[in-house]
Input
Amino acid sequence: MPRLEELQDLTTQVRRDILRMVHKVNSGHPGGSLGCAEFFVALYNELMELNEGFDMDGKGEDLFFLSNGHISPVYYSVLARSGYFPVDELNTFRLINSRLQGHPTTHEGLPGVRIASGSLGQGMSVAIGAALAKKLNKDSNIVYSLHGDGELQEGQNWEAMMYASANKVDNLISTIDLNGQQIDGSTDTVLNMGSVRAKFEAFGWDVLDVKEGNNLEAVIGGLKKAKSMTGNGKPICVLLHTVMGNGVDFMMHTHAWHGKAPSDEQLETALAQNPETLGDY
Output
């Protein structure tokens, strides 16, 4: 399956981009970014119907909103490698006056970014608003959003979820990055949420699990299944089981790399595990 191999190569290159961006400025969030590389590659290369060029209205195309904005490195890498802006602009990550700030913002006019995010818990509300706007405009496209599992501890999410099901927002697919880690430790330790599936179902959503959230084929298959479930009167939740720091052995299965940059030596080790495929910026 040549196409899958191409996407695997892209995923590896995205991981390199993440590591190099965060290392260069000794700042950023590599853990969650590495864990979501397959999701972003699948979304932008296999799932979303996108128009040529970029405008803020996004009429007649699918929309994506990143709620857990701190994982901007993976977002920027995939946007750049999808043609939204020059790949070499990744060199400016988190620099003063850069369009690529630590959390995505809109006032710099970065193509691909429609909301400022990073204040956690707000993306669900925005995605629901956009999905309702599409319904009002008789626009049959879908709205996608991504949220951290720790982020669900924010109460605004649950009000939004209740609103979405009550108003039959069935053109929305919200994915939860279930890596079990957040800035201060495991989600179970910081504030155990119990069964996320049971909660979403109790709030009137259809829920599906992607158990292998770092297997590109499984992610594509899961998202396509979610897409097939839209239009049936319920919003869709995808529970994406990922590993924080995936692809770099010393960053995996720990919250330690939530918001920490690798040293020169650590970068060398990490890049050796993710060989250059499409060319570094």
